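Lecture notes, continued. The same structure-token format from the folding unit now serves as the input rather than the output. Read the line below as a description of shape only.
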């Protein structure tokens, strides 16, 4: 594998341009890019810029909506259900985080469930944002099967990622 070194600012600019070229709004492209670059800078390359090609392919195939219209249903005073309209996961997750922090400031806690979104990138990204603002988060998501159960040969289980 060939490794390419590029300045962080140049990588950000190029990646944002790539996302914008497939219809992602500028602010959403910046958020997604920042999440991916943050993963690379933390040594989590599996959630870094290597994902750009897959994200772009999913947008071109119609599996990811580059400019979603998310619908938020408030099912209780501090509980939200977000239909993400097949958004980039970074966009849907940040939307949920902002809603939860706003509600937590009012009532002390909040909970959000998101459906119909895509890969959210590095989970720790969101927890760091919340922590800097004085909030504690618990974020979890599903994952595609990558592991075989004990004694098995076929991948049937995801890694069930979570972050606090």
């Amino acid at each position: 594998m060939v490794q390419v070194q590029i300045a962080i600012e140049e990588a950000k600019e190029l990646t944002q341009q790539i996302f914008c070229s497939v219809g992602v709004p500028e602010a959403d492209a910046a958020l997604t890019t920042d999440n991916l670059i943050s993963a690379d800078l933390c040594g989590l390359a599996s959630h870094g810029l290597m994902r750009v090609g897959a994200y772009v392919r999913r947008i071109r195939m119609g599996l990811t909506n580059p400019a979603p219209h998310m619908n938020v249903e408030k099912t209780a005073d501090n509980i939200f259900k977000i239909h993400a309209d097949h958004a980039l996961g970074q966009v849907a997750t940040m939307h949920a985080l902002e809603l939860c922090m706003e509600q937590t400031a009012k009532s002390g806690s909040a909970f959000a469930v998101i459906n119909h979104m895509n890969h959210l990138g590095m989970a720790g990204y969101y927890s760091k944002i919340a922590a800097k603002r004085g909030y504690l988060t618990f974020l979890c998501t599903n994952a595609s099967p990558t592991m075989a159960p004990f004694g098995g040969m076929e991948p049937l289980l995801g890694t069930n990622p979570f972050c606090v």
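Point for the exam: The longest helix spans residues 89-107.
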